[in-house]
Amino acid sequence: MSAAATLAELRAQIRALEGGARVVRRRASSGVDLVDELLGGLPRPGIVEITGPPGSGRVRFAASLLAEATARRRPVAWVDATRRLYPIALAGHGVELGHLLLVRPPADGSHPWLWATEQLLRSGCFELVVVEPPVLAKGQLPRRPIGARWARAAEHGQSTALVLGERPTRQLAADVRLAVGAGQVAVVRDRGGPAGGQGPLPAWPEHVGPFA
Asked: Which end of the chain is more exposed for a tag (fewer CB within 10 A), N or C?
C-alpha cells in the first residue's frame, strides 16, 4: 500500500472513531486536457494551490477551469480578496458570468475572506471556489493552518478550492501544488500521484488581451 493510501486509510479510521462519515475522494475531470493528463483530474474534495509571479498566467489558468465548469452549467465562486479581478475579462475567457458568484470582502485588515472561502466550500453549492488571498506581511495570517478548516469544509461540500498566489503558503495543506510561469504549468506536489510533470498553459482566446 502506498504512503498516500495508508494516510487516507488512517484518516478514515480516525473519522470513524470520531463518528464522522467516510469521505469519498476522487479525481474529477476538469475538462482542461492539461489538468486531466497531469493530475488525472482535480481532487474532489481537495485544495489546489496555483502559484506564479504577476503576469505568469495563474489567473488565466484558473479562468480556463471555471470556463469548463460553467459550460456544464455548474455554479462556481471567486473570492476576490485582492479586489483586482475584472469579471468581464473572465467572460472573455469563456466563463459564463451567470454561473459565477463574485465575493469581494472589505479591505479592512480583517480576515473575512478566510471565513467566506470556508462557507462557500462547505455549502455544497459550488463545484469550484477560487480564492486569491491578499498579500500580507509576516504574522498577519492566522497561526492555525488555514488549509485545515478549508479542507474540512471542502469535504463537507464535496468541492475543490483553487488558491492563487505569488508563492506557496506554508499554512496551506494543499493536495496539489502547481507552479505557473514561462508559459508552462508544472506539478510541484501531488498527494495522489507523481510530481514533476508539466505542460503548456491554455492558449489565449484570440479576442482577449493578457490580464494575468
From this structure: N
The C-alpha atoms of residue 93 and residue 208 are separated, in whole angstroms, by: 7
pLDDT for 115-147, tens place per residue?
A: 999 999 999 999 999 999 886 545 445 555 677
Q: What does the mean pLDDT of the chain come to?
A: 85
Task: Quote the Cα angle for 125-186-65, to 5°.
Answer: 25
Gap between the terminal Cα atoms of the chain: 41
Question: 4 lies in a domain?
Answer: no
Pairing of strands 176-181, 184-190: antiparallel
Is 31 exposed, middle or buried (CB count within 10 Å of its CB: 0-12, 13-18, 19+)?
A: middle
Q: Is residue 180 a part of any domain in this protein?
A: yes
Give the CATH number for residue 80. 3.40.50.300
Give residue 76's pLDDT: 98
DSSP code of residue 21 = P
- With respect to residue 76, please indicate whether it lies within any of the assigned structural domains: yes
Q: What is the pLDDT of residues 26-81, one digit of tens each?
A: 999 999 999 999 999 999 999 999 999 999 999 999 999 999 999 999 999 999 99
Task: Give the chain's domain count.
Answer: 1
Judge contact between 71 and 31, C-beta under 8 A: yes
Instruction: Identify whether 36 is part of a domain.
Output: yes
144 lies in which domain range? 26-200
